Amino acid sequence: MTLAPLIDLNDGNRIPQLGLGTWPLDDEQAAAAVAQAVEAGYRHIDTAVKYGNERGVGNGIRASGVDRSELFITTKLDGEFQGHDRAVAGLEGSLARLGLDYVDLLLIHWPLPGRDQYISTWQTFERLQAEGKVRSIGVSNFKPAHLERLMAETDVVPAVNQIQLSPAITRSAEREFHRRHGIITESYSPLGGSGAGLLGAPILSQLAEKHGKTPGQLVLRWHIQNGLVTIPKTASPERMAENLDVFDFALDPQDLAELSILDEGPGAGNDSDQTGH
Fold it and tell me: How far is CA 250 from CA 19, 202, 264, in A?
């Protein structure tokens, strides 16, 4: 059984480098997918309040038969739970739906800078971590400017920033900022979203043939070699196994250079100053 390597976080905890994303699965689908993923070797599962499937994720965890201590579970609180102590009830609700005593990683889902509540929310996250209800705390969709303010006005540097990221949306400036501050970059939509899109690029087919892998495996290997944590989403047991089978080959410097043509530039992807929930 293949297990993903563990990446050190800035708080002393460790996160599996490859996990299972669960959006947009419903409870029933999530329960089946999580149990199948754990059987395949996944130890990192990502969910969120907004996904509406935390109960299913919890059911899948219990159905897997694997001890809770072996799993890394992430959930995210959206704007409903921003502002002072609203995150307390948010986390309590997540834990109840998941059927867990703690989560390994709790994220602020979006900065929502127009509301100006992510600082007080983060201060509540700090307290929840100190109380042992979460192991690590982080953010999602935060830009460097949001992170700079957060670090200037609070005490704990986020362990993770989960952002939209792929060979087409490389976020190189954000990744460098994270590196300088000891924040792990986690990629969501790592395969570029639905449709042919990124995975239909001719260069991926050429490199897949060279390495005897699929285009999706080439893209996930790109994330791994860039030191990113990544959470491809699928409900297919076959695709789960395929996504995890990316640790037995390597992209060479020429491969990486050729893949750089896929980069759509710094303006690609969502803008969290303009969107969020």
Answer: 19, 19, 24
Q: Which helix (H) or strand (E) holds 162?
A: strand 160-164
Residue 10 DSSP label: T
Cα gap 160→9, rounded to integer Å: 8
Does residue 36 register a pLDDT over 60?
A: yes
Nearest-angstrom CA–CA distance, 78 and 94: 12
- Return the structure tokens found at 89: 């009830």
Q: In what order do the strands lie in the sheet with 134-140?
A: 20-21, 44-46, 72-77, 103-108, 134-140, 160-164, 184-188, 229-230
Name the nearest CA neighbour of 18 among 247, 160, 231: 231
Q: What is the 3-class SS of 224-237, one letter each residue? A: HHCCCEECCECCCH
Question: In terms of DSSP bridges, do strands 14-16 and 6-8 run parallel, antiparallel, or are they unpaired?
Answer: antiparallel
- For residue 46, give both structure tokens: 């990502």
Residues designated catalytic: 51
Query: Do the Cβ atoms of 115 and 82 come closer than 8 Å?
Result: yes
For residues 101, 228, 48, 214, the Cα torsion angle rounded to the nearest 10 degrees is: -120
Angle between helices 27-40 and 54-64 (to 10 degrees): 40
Tens of pLDDT, residue by residue over 126-176, are: 999 999 999 999 999 999 999 999 999 999 999 999 999 999 999 999 999
Q: pLDDT digits over 162-216, tens only?
A: 999 999 999 999 999 999 999 999 999 999 965 458 999 999 999 999 999 999 9
Check if the beta carbon of residue 99 is closer than 8 Å to that of residue 130: no
